[in-house]
Amino acid sequence: AACPGACQVPRYVRVNTLKTCVDDAIDFFKRQGYSYLGKAASVEELRALSGKKFLLDLHLPELLVFPPETDFHDNLLYTSGHIILQDKASCLPAFLLSPAAGSHIIDACAAPGNKTSHLAAILKNKGQIFAFDVDTKRLATMNTMLMRAGVTGFQLAQQDFLTVDPGDAKYSKVTYILLDPSCSGSGMVNRVPREEAAPSAERLQALAGFQRKVLSHALSFPALQRLVYSTCSLHREENEDVVQAVLQEWGSTFRLVNAFPSWPWRGLAAFSGAESCLRASPADTLTHGFFVAVLERHGEGTAAPS
Ligand code: SAM
User: Fold this and answer.
1) What is the predicted ipTM?
2) Hey, whose CA ends up nearest to atom 1 of ligand 1?
């Protein structure tokens, strides 16, 4: 098993800087009887948390960390959109995309929108986010969540991202794309019993085919400079193999960025340079299982891959 009972994932709380700041959120929790222990120095400190104590995360600047059993779904800060209950690993994509204020961004598979709201916070609501998803129910949830979080400057469309035209003038200034496509979810802890979570070879192949297609489509946006590809899967077929295949397809147009060098767990050695990718897991990073790759335009060419 990837995670014996001893390695429970903490409750991570992302402070929504569109509505409040880290210091005010800390003060709020202190008034609710929690003791603040300062900024963590190691993952071990996060692992040792218990009772009504909390820390500031060591890797992500706006992330508070509470013991695993903490439930904030009824907390005023949550219901008012001042905090977002989001796993640490799932905060990596927007943080590593690191878009400049005023940018135009596509969030290609966006619902229920945690990463979209994180992007908006990084942009300070200055810029434009085009968010797509195919699932009506998830889009409805997303709309509510973005309103609650005070996100403005976004366009939400129910559309298959594969049918979004990269040549449309509307997207001519899109320099950043966040791509978090459907995956097997094999990295999610406690969602389904682990045996049931194991996808068949056929399902993995189908998912990987979709992921390659959607990644290649994203790279075809003409002004794109930087893209983050992420999954909550631990399967190499959906992660390093997808990145390798699509990078190969595009020749030297895009390159992998050595993202977050101080992050301890790296991509599997599936190809030369795969260690530039990040991996996350309960045992190694005390998060859900996750994969992130950061790609940047390298040469001048914008030609479609052969
Ligand atoms: N990024 C989201 C977040 O942080 O809240 C989670 C995204 S979830 C992993 C993947 C999403 O991709 C699902 O909501 C699914 O409906 C959507 N999806 C699947 N195929 C799609 C497609 N062809 N175009 C757009 N969205 C798609």
Assistant:
1) 0.99
2) 110
